[in-house]
């Protein structure tokens, strides 16, 4: 059984492709997939293995389950919204002033907008409590929010107190939030898109699809008849939004996926049965990168280095960097740390005020070196270990304790993989030149040149 197949991540698509191959061999197996998306015909056709004319022999079917969603009235803006955060705040206060009790769920684009909206609502709360009979409590909800703060949403609230939950796209398919009657939808989200020409991943703000908008709207209909306020004109909603989300396989770098499939024995990627075939430009770019990294030979087969890289749970560039550090440069201990530190998002805490930003910049100076950010991360990790992994040291230096502890675990796992491959794990004893050579072996395609105007351009693409 596979849940949430409508999310269409690249891992889900690969899993479904292998399950389809398995079902062709094992006739005794049954596969159950669940989705909250109404348009699931694409999955039915993909798993329909009956090639005969007789429809009675069809092996796949669709079973719909009534989720008892109440009626949700939809309201659109009369004018285009210039500032979505300001418009969302105005809509929240208007609902609180004019509508009956019921919690409000607000979808914004990113974490900063969520924090800004919550702060503004808290600042105007005393004034609102004087004007309106009911009080309200504001809760933010986003990926990086601590779990304990996320769980506060489900605490029982007193009578005549309205919850206002301001969130990102994290709440689209998660557990239904209790007592939500009103939904305010900005119709935007953050999404990663890969450009095969430049080799750069762009995190872009873009419109959601109509199917996602329906999922957001339905959040208002689980308790009683609800209302959904979309922050756009109705004509814009109908004309600008796509019907379905673009699958991840058509908008991200496929280099790791191709290496993984090659390691699993798939010889021809173009003939592999994807539920949605990836773009040829993305496949071509991925194969070209693997050949440049010497993970594939001219015939598209894995080299000895490629076989080892396919075992490591890393991006191919990181795998080459790590393997080269062990085989050629004898600096695996240091590069293990760099690979682990690159696997976490943020090393330093995010400053909330200008004074905190100035303090953070001053604290960073004790770790920064001329060799670049990767060596800086190495220095942070070494300092953390030398200070006995103390949380108080992290707090004093504005370092994310939770993330750096995660890096320690990742490094331990990567070290075990290197032992599994029977590769030497040695230290370069402070010879940074060897570390830099290992980094260049994996990331030579990212080399940039400083122009006279102070900007950088990639040597490979001249952009």
Low-confidence stretches: none
Largest sheet: 6 strands, parallel
Q: State mean pLDDT (0 to 100 scale).
A: 89
Looking at the overall shape, the CATH architecture of the largest domain is: 3-Layer(aba) Sandwich
> Which structural category fits the helices and strands?
alpha/beta
Describe this structure in words.
The protein is α/β, with parallel strands linked by helices and 463 residues long. It is built from 18 helices and ten strands. Helix 13 crosses helix 17 (401-420). It is 42% helix and 12% strand. The mean pLDDT is 89. The protein has three domains: 5-57, no CATH class; 72-248, Rossmann fold (3-Layer(aba) Sandwich); 312-463, no CATH class. It is globular, with a radius of gyration of 26 Å.
Keyword list:
single chain; 463 residues; Rossmann fold; 3 domains; six-stranded parallel beta sheet; globular
Write the layout of secondary structure elements.
Elements: H1 10-25, H2 41-47, E1 72-76, H3 84-98, E2 103-107, H4 111-123, H5 125-131, E3 135-141, H6 147-151, E4 161-167, E5 180-185, E6 188-195, E7 200-207, H7 210-218, E8 226-230, H8 234-240, H9 255-263, H10 280-292, H11 304-311, H12 316-327, H13 332-342, H14 354-364, H15 373-386, H16 391-396, H17 401-420, H18 432-443, E9 448-450, E10 456-458
Parallel strand pairs: 1-8, 2-4, 2-5, 3-4, 5-8
Antiparallel strand pairs: 6-7, 9-10
Helix pairs in contact: 3-4, 9-10, 9-11, 11-12, 12-13, 12-18, 13-15, 13-17
